Each structure stands twice: as C-alpha cells, then as structure tokens.
Amino acid sequence: MSLTGLFSPRWPGVALFDLDGTLVDSAPDLAAAVDQMLEQLGRSTAGINQVRQWVGNGASVLVRRALAGQTDWEPARPQDEALFKDALAIFYHAYGQINGRHSIVYDGVEACLGRLAEHGCKLGVVTNKPEQFVAPLLEQMGLDHWFDISIGGDTLPVKKPDPTPLLHAMEALGGTRGTTVMVGDSAADINAALAAGVPCVAVRYGYNFGQPVDALGADAVVDSLAELL
Ligand SMILES: O=C(O)COP(=O)(O)O
Ligand SMILES: [Mg+2]
User: Fold this and answer.
1) One domain, residues 77 and 39
2) Last residue of a domain, which of 76, 98, 120?
3) What mean pLDDT value characterizes the chain?
4) Packing angle between helix 59-68 and helix 27-40, nearest 10 degrees?
5) Are residues 120 and 222 in the same domain?
6) Is the pTM of this model over 0.90?
7) Which Pfam families match (predicted)?
C-alpha cells in the first residue's frame, strides 16, 4: 500500500496508536526508573541509550532485560525469581513517581490526531505499558482527550504482538479490519497488526529494540506522523 491515499477523508474509521516510541518519547523516564532500580539492587546503571532498546514488550520484560543486561534475556532460574519480583516492585514504585517527568510528545502527533478526529475517526491507544501508567502519562502529555479507549499491556491476558488487544480496541470503537489502522514503532506493533489483519503504519523515530523498522512488513513507514496528513 502506498502512503498516497492511505489516509483519506473517509478512511480510517478507527486509528489505534502505540504509546511509547510512537506518541511519546518516554525513554528518559523509563531509563531513570530502570537505573534507580539497578542502583537500589547494587548494580551498575544501564543508561538511556541502552534502556531505549529494551522498551516495547512491557514492564516485566524491560526489568528482565535490565537484570540480564541484554535484550535477549534467558528464562530466569527458579532461584532468580525472587530477585526479579523485588526488581519489578522497585521499578513500579520508581516509575510511578517519575512517569511523565521528562517525557515529550513527538512532533507531528497532535496535528495527526487532530486531523483524524476532525474527520470523525475514532482514536485508541494500544500499548504494552502497564495500564496504571497509561492514563497518568496521557494526561500529563495533554493527549488524553483524543482517545476513546486505551488498552494497556496488562488490561487483557495477552499483549502485543498478540493481535487480541488491537482487535479488542477495534471492536470497542466500532471498527472492522477494513476500516482500522494501527500506528506503531516496533516489531511488536507491526506483528500484532499483521496477525490481526489490520493495515499498519510504522514510525522510524521510535525504539524498535535498536533495529530499523523498514523491512518488517508495515504498509507504510514514516519519519513523522505529520507525513500522514
Ligand atoms: O512499555 C513498553 O514496553 C512499551 O510500550 P508500547 O507498547 O507503548 O511501545
Ligand atoms: Mg512502542
């Protein structure tokens, strides 16, 4: 699908957006919370460049990656589970306090949401970020008023790349596969959209585990959501 004509006055009827790395650059806050957790456990900090590459599969995986010091974490040995639980609790507490402090809305986001809403498109957020952090971040970023639904990583029993959260949001907003688009920054978003049978726009400026998004099967890849106008 070419980008020309991808967005028209009548299409899409439902647009679903990933949050971290697509609407909001939240990596500074996530990195601060991860580093606070590592420090509290007596470990060396990871830093934002590293943490940015670990975001995209939810808080539990982020904490497991931080403990392993790499993206491909090994399944924890039973004796490591207690450490993981402690680390996760520290991370949740730290991120709950830091969430939104250094995060910023990417250029082009407001204009894109505004134009879609103007055309009667229903907007939703489908993120792997735990639900309790989603509304506070959207509110602080001044984005909450655009969205009719938000699904967090723990709202349903499964998260992206499983298609279920996308399909759930799509149906809740009265959309169908033919009238819905997913917009995201990572393989988790693109694979969820492919599995759901929903067209997908990928943004290049996000995280995607430090890898380019161009060859992952998205219908369009953009440098800014303003390109969609
Ligand atoms: O919390 C994460 O790992 C990422 O969340 P996202 O799905 O909004 O990119
Ligand atoms: Mg993302």
Assistant:
1) yes
2) 98
3) 94
4) 50
5) yes
6) yes
7) Hydrolase
